[in-house]
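Input (structure):
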C-alpha cells in the first residue's frame, strides 16, 4: 500500500503516563503503516520539561504558531506530590495553560457519539461543542472577607493618575464578603474571533450567552464585542455558509440546549463554561470520549483529548497488568490534526484518511468491541466484548485496513 503523503509537518507534543503509552500504540498501529508521517516532535513529558526547565513547552507553542496545526498528548500538571515523585526543581506550570497563553486561544470540547451510548438528554442527537473563555472573571478576582461594618467602594484611577470613577459597592453594617473581578477587551475579542472561526470551520451555528440584563456593563461588554466583531468580520461568511450566530441570556440558553438536538457550538463565559462543560460531557457519556481543540484568534489549531494522563491505569500498567484505557479521544486528536493539515495543504487523501480512521473507530465500537469504561454506558441488551487498549486499537486497525483496501 502506498503511504499517504504529507507536506507540512504537524507539531507533535508527546506527554505522560498512560496516554504516552497509548500515543505510541496509536502511532505504531494506526498511523505509521498508512501515513508518510511528518512531524516536528516535542517531548512534553514531565522529565523533559524538567530537563529543559520547561523551555520545550514554550518551543512547542512557538512551533504551533509557525506551522498552524499541533496534536498533543495529555500531560501531567505538577502539584506537590508530583514534585516529589519526579524529583522536580520547580512546580512547572500547566503545559496547557502555557500553550493557551502563547496562542491566546479558546478551547472547544465536543463528545464522540455512538449509537449504543445514549445521552442522558434523550433528544440530543448531535454533539454539543462548548467553548469556554478561559480568562479572567472569578478566576482572577480579588476577594476580601469583610470582618466588620464599613464601606466598600469600586475605584478606578487612570494611567495618568486621575481618579475617574468611584462608587459605593455596599455599606456593610455587619461582616460579609467582597469580590472584584475584571476582564479585558483584548481577551474577549480573541475569544470571539476563535469562536466565529471555529463555527465557520465546522459549519455549525454559534450560540453565545451571558447575563447582560443583570450585568449591564460587564456582561453587556461581552455581548457588544461579539456582535460588533460578527457584523464587521463574519456576517457575510456565516450567511454564505448557511450558519447563524445567536445571542441569548444564559438561563434561556440552558433551556434551549436541553430541548435541542445538539449540533452547535455554545460559547460561554469562563465560569459558565467551567460548569456547563462538565455537565454536558457527563450527560453525553464519558470523559474518555471527549475531544478538545485549542483555536487561536488567527486560526492556529492544537488538537488533544479532554481527559488527563489516566494515572491510575498507568500505575497498573507499570505493575505489568493489562489496562483497558480508552484511546478514542487521543485518536481523534490525530484525525482532527490530519484533517486540518490536509485542508490547509490541499491534500484530499490526508483528509480522507482522517475520515476513514474515524469511521474504523466507530465501526469497531458499533460492533461492540470497546474498552471497559464504555461497557457500563451502553444501552442494555447490546452485545459487547470488553478488550484491553492494544486489542481495541488492533480491532480498529483491521477495520481501517479493510476500508482502505
Ligand atoms: P484523568 O487522567 O482524566 O483520569 C480520571 C479518571 O477518569 C481515570 O482514573 C479513569 O477512571 C477515567 N478516565 C479518563 N480518561 C480515560 C480513558 N481514556 N479511558 C478510560 N478511563 C478514563 O484525570 P486525573 O486522574 O484527575 O489526572 C491525571 C493527570 O492528568 C494529572 O497529573 C493531571 O494533571 C493531568 N491532566 C492533564 C490534562 C491535559 O493534559 N489536558 C487534563 C486533565 C488532567 P477509572 O480510574 O475509574 O478507570
Ligand atoms: Mg469544571
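Output (sequence):
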Amino acid at each position: 500500500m502506498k503511504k499517504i503523503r504529507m507536506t507540512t509537518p504537524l507539531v507533535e507534543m508527546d506527554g505522560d503516563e498512560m496516554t504516552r503509552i497509548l500515543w505510541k500504540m496509536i502511532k505504531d498501529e494506526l498511523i505509521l503503516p498508512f501515513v508518510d508521517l511528518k512531524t516536528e516532535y516535542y517531548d512534553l513529558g514531565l522529565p523533559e520539561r524538567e530537563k529543559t526547565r520547561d523551555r520545550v513547552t514554550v518551543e512547542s507553542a512557538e512551533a504551533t504558531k509557525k506551522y498552524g496545526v499541533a496534536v498533543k498528548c495529555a500531560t501531567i500538571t505538577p502539584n506537590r506530590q508530583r514534585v516529589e515523585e519526579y524529583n522536580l526543581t520547580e512546580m512547572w506550570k500547566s503545559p496547557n495553560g502555557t500553550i493557551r497563553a502563547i496562542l491566546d486561544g479558546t478551547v472547544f470540547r465536543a463528545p464522540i457519539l455512538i449509537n449504543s451510548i445514549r445521552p442522558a438528554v434523550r433528544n440530543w442527537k448531535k454533539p454539543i461543542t462548548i467553548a469556554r473563555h478561559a480568562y479572567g472573571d472569578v478566576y482572577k478576582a480579588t476577594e476580601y472577607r469583610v470582618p466588620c461594618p464599613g464601606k466598600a467602594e469600586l475605584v478606578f484611577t487612570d494611567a495618568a493618575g486621575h481618579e475617574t470613577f468611584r462608587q459605593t459597592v455596599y455599606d456593610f453594617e455587619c461582616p460579609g464578603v467582597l469580590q472584584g473581578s475584571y476582564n479585558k477587551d483584548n481577551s474577549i475579542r480573541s475569544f470571539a474571533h476563535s469562536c466565529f472561526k471555529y463555527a465557520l470551520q465546522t459549519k455549525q451555528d454559534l450560540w453565545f450567552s451571558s447575563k447582560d440584563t443583570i450585568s449591564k456593563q460587564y456582561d453587556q461588554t461581552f455581548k457588544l464585542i461579539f456582535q460588533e466583531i460578527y457584523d464587521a468580520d463574519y456576517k457575510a461568511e456565516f450567511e454564505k455558509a448557511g450558519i447563524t450566530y445567536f445571542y441569548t441570556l444564559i438561563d434561556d440558553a440552558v433551556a434551549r440546549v436541553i430541548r435541542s438536538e445538539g449540533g452547535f457550538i455554545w460559547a460561554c463565559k469562563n465560569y459558565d463554561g467551567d460548569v456547563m462543560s462538565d455537565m454536558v460531557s457527563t450527560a453525553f457519556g464519558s470523559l474518555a470520549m471527549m475531544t478538545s481543540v485549542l483555536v487561536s484568534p488567527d486560526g492556529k489549531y492544537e488538537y488533544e483529548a479532554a481527559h488527563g494522563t489516566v494515572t491510575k491505569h498507568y500505575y497498573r500498567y507499570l505493575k505489568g497488568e493489562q489496562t483497558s484505557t480508552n484511546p478514542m479521544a487521543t485518536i481523534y486528536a490525530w484525525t482532527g490534526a490530519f484533517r486540518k493539515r490536509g485542508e490547509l495543504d490541499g491534500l484530499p487523501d490526508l483528509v480522507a484518511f482522517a475520515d476513514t480512521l474515524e469511521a474504523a473507530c466507530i465501526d469497531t465500537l458499533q460492533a461492540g468491541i470497546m474498552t471497559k469504561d464504555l461497557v457500563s454506558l451502553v444501552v442494555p441488551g447490546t452485545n459487547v466484548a470488553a478488550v484491553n487498549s492494544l486489542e481495541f486499537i488492533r480491532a480498529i486497525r483491521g477495520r481501517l485496513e479493510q476500508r482502505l483496501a
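Notes: The domain at 118-140+183-284 is CATH 3.40.718.10 (Isopropylmalate Dehydrogenase). The CA atoms of residues 6 and 38 lie 6 Å apart.
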